[in-house]
Amino acid sequence: MRYRYKTGANGKPEKKAVIYTCDEHGINFANVDGEAVSIIRKLKSAGFDSYIVGGAVRDLILGKKPKDFDIVSAASPGRIKKLFRNSRIIGRRFRLVHVYSGERIFEVSTFRSLKDGHTSNTFGTIEEDVQRRDFTLNALFYDPQQQIVVDYVGGMDDIKKKQIKPIINLNDIFTDDPVRMIRACKYSAISGFSMPVNLKKKITAQSNLLLNISPSRLTEEMFKIINSDKAAVIVESLEKSGLYNYLQPGACALMKKSADFRKKYYESLSKLKGAENKRGEALGALFKDYLDTTCEWKPGSTENFKEICKDARYFIMPINPPRFDFHYSVKKFLSSKGITIKRVLLKPAAEEAPTAVKRKRRRRKKNKNITQ
After folding, report:
1. Is 177 considered catalytic here?
2. Is 241 helix (H, G, I), strand (E, B) or coil?
3. What pTM was estimated for this model as a whole?
4. Which of 33, 59, 129, 134 is catalytic?
5. pLDDT tens track for 181-211
6. Is 134 a catalytic residue?
């Protein structure tokens, strides 16, 4: 075990982080994505301190092979973009870079500062960046070249103790970002780690803060849940904490009324297979038991696709999935019932065109009329 030091205010060296070697952290390098290693190697060769960070490091320490590898670096988004041709900068407030490798995407972010608090969107140092992260088990930095784990917040000890410990003060952590409540329950359900009593109480007391979260962010979190192979366990944890009512109020209301619906709903979630799911297939688990409960489906019957979509979409609100994925999931449900779609009411391309495109077409038509 080694330590990382930094000069303190008194001019003397202060211990800032614990560095765990390969023998100590126990990560199997075979579980580390080769492309993520290549990205870090390129960033470090250009002179930028870079690491694998977050849930991927947690999973590696637990002996799992992560699905996603997020990377953090001292390089600015502009510099990252120049280093990788197959990349693009995303985000408005805080810019990130998506580096593409075939169909895979690696998210590379820049260290953030504490200049504007824990939700700061300005660049900073690794020491500041770690203090912005939610829980200690997600705040470990892994250098695959040196095969070391850098721990500023005692995350390694908390993983060994199987506990979820917040980094940010409890009075601020959820007011800064209420979505962290969903993540806390999700991490606990997936890992089997315990949450301290004060953390559970704070989640219960502040669950209504999720009312202020946009449907797009809630949809993103819901997709992560249904595309996990532990979707049922995560939903059960969220329901017990009172959070699932903000993600799927329709399902929660029906589960309170009907034990039979509750049983079927959780059975559908239990059948989801994580990475093997098609996105549309996973979506179907959220509404198919509702449609089964409220309607009688006769094989060979003809149904109005638009009305069924409207009913299912209303039930899963505030979740607002992409239309293509949603329509796919509804069609798959109807097909399983042997039902013919009477009418697929999709807007023609002209109606779906953005306003700017519509104006351009009108000008083109007007100019054509003038020349004639």
Report:
1. no
2. coil
3. 0.82
4. 134
5. 999 999 999 889 999 999 999 999 999 999 9
6. yes
